[in-house]
């Protein structure tokens, strides 16, 4: 009897030990697969959560610092500007407080001379620019203030900070993310990578990824002496960590020249995050310098950043006009009926980055040719000023017609319109709307103008079943 009891106790103990072992194993497996699951109740990402690393040089910083001042907010932002040697005292301007505070750091060539660079005709400064990632993380990963994202760009990258923060707020910074966009030119992507974030348009690394990347970066770039740019090296090392590009079309490399109107007026429904190469295109507003044109654009950005360049299309049934509002930039009236899918094709007002033809002139987006005769093209109205009502928050933007020496029918031609006034409310999408954006609708409003040369337009959310087309 005693032996039976002892045998039963032994079997019971073995069973309990096996059960506990299995439970521990299941918990371990669950912990392994759920290690990346995060609490989704975290607060939204703000500008204060972002650290910027800007690659520059002593020669270029003097001119390009003015562009950085347009978007930099010293009260909210943290970051560094990297140059290869200390700046001369003549560049120590009294307005330096408007720039990244104490950020003109020096990562000298002798710090990168140990790395080989074999791209024929290239610039080994690419190694220095690539290591801005490492240096920025080293400077800020011990900060007492929370860092969720590291964002990198060139000194002529123009960020829209609010839109950047809202775009990044869609992502969990505790997971590994590499976010940016590619070139507009097929040939550029073929050379450097169809899934590489081009550095001029800027790219973002979640802090969790950036910290791991920084620990392995120097050893990684030793394997890539044959690559051209700094962004190529970052891309290669991110790939080695098993991470691919999360593409956001709001980042713009802008590998085009000439008149960029066609690209800007066909912008994605995603928020504008960055612009680049502005000194290589025509001023985006007429009768203006490049810098003053960008500064003028920011007068609209300051009032409604998430709406900038957002395209709404409506129709005048009486005249069969197609009216395209690229908010904060232009309104265009085409004197014929165009389907929305055709309006969204970028007008080829611009030229490719290279002149060699072939794949160098193949774009990565849909385009449409423009008429050789400027008088046969859509009538373009450029933003003059933007204001906000303190009474009800209505934002009014005013657009004036760009002059073209054309003859026209004073009754039926859109050229009879001299001014367009657009009324809207500040765009403030939630996370759900940011993840699945929908284009807004517009209406032609009745106007008190007696001369018939002023048009008023209202922008609003489309109704659930509302379609954007010309109604019979």
From TrEMBL:
Q: Which Gene3D superfamilies match?
A: 3.90.550.50
Q: Where is the signal peptide?
A: 1-20
Q: InterPro entries, per this entry? A: DUF604
Q: Which Pfam families match?
A: DUF604
* Keyword field: Signal
- Ranges that cross the membrane: none
- Name the record gives this protein: (thale cress) hypothetical protein
